[in-house]
Amino acid sequence: MFPSFITWDINPDIINSFVTIRWYGLMFAIGFWIGFNIVARMFKREGVPERWLGILLIYVGVATIVGARLGHVFFYQWDYYSAHPWKILATWEGGLASHGGAIGIIIAVILFSIFTTRRNPLWTFDRLTIAIAFVACLIRIGNLMNSEIFGIPTELPWGFKFVRSEEWHRLYYGLACHPTQIYEALTYLALFGLMMWMYWKKNCGERPGLLFGTFLIGTFGSRFLIEFIKNDQVAFEAAMEYNMGQLLSIPFVLLGIFLIVWAFTHKREAIAYPNCFAPEPNDKLKR
């Protein structure tokens, strides 16, 4: 007979000696590296300057960390951080919010579009969010390795007992819980596959906003649904009909619907695909 639950007893540290390397950090780094290369392939395919890649990486990297941290501070624990503002910088103690990271990336892409590409921000959003879907999948695997952000108890045979989690011992000791990290990771992986197919096989990048809208609905629509079986992140959510994660997801889903409607009600914009980076001004001078 198959077991009625899975005992999850994975050490979150890969190496713990004079340096500490954690699975979460490794997943984050791998995601960023693969995501960077995915975007690089798309930029090369469409013949834009290669230097845009490095600039975009800086914008997005800073915006993701700062936005995710401030999102947690303002959306989930403002009472605590308003009384201990110096703790906002203590990111090693945990506390990142994906919705805050999303807002940070949106601001970063708008600035990147104004100062670097001088194109409609939707052009960057449509390409960048394909990579972000893959990064989000790996981050949720990192959460699984940390035995964090899991769900409420379940009797399903794939329920997990997170024996290394203090939260699990305090709230659900002896009970198997939904591995919501896996649910979200699989959803984001499927979304990534769909968006790659849309971009490479259907040239959906020629419809500004279509890929970005698909990402918003797929990411935050699934997040809204999975939150019903996810454990509350902070105490005040227990008194809410819809938790903070669900409330914050609604505007993103509505924006996604608007963008898809916009994409199909406006003329398709043909794109040339030279499959090589555009020469830089200095390169032209050398010739």
Task: List descriptors.
mainly alpha; 4 strands; single chain; 287 residues; globular
Low-confidence stretches: none
The whole-number mean of residue pLDDT values reads 92
| Share in helix | 55-70%
Q: Tally the helices.
A: 10
Instruction: Tell me what portion of residues adopts beta-strand conformation.
Output: under 5%
DSSP strand tally: 4
Strand line-up in the sheet with most strands: 1-4
Q: Report the span from N to C terminus.
A: 72 Å
List the helices and strands and how they pair.
Elements lengths: L5 E3 L4 E4 L3 E3 H23 L5 H25 L2 H6 L14 H20 L3 H25 L14 E3 L3 H7 L7 H21 L9 H17 L17 H21 L16 H6 L1
Descriptive notes:
With 287 residues, this protein is mainly alpha-helical. 60% of the residues lie in helices and 5% in strands. The chain is built from ten helices and four strands; from the N terminus they run βββαααααβααααα. β2 and β3 form a beta hairpin. The longest helix has 25 residues. The termini are far apart.
Structure described in brief:
The protein is mainly α and about 290 residues long. Helix content is about 60%, strand content about 5%.
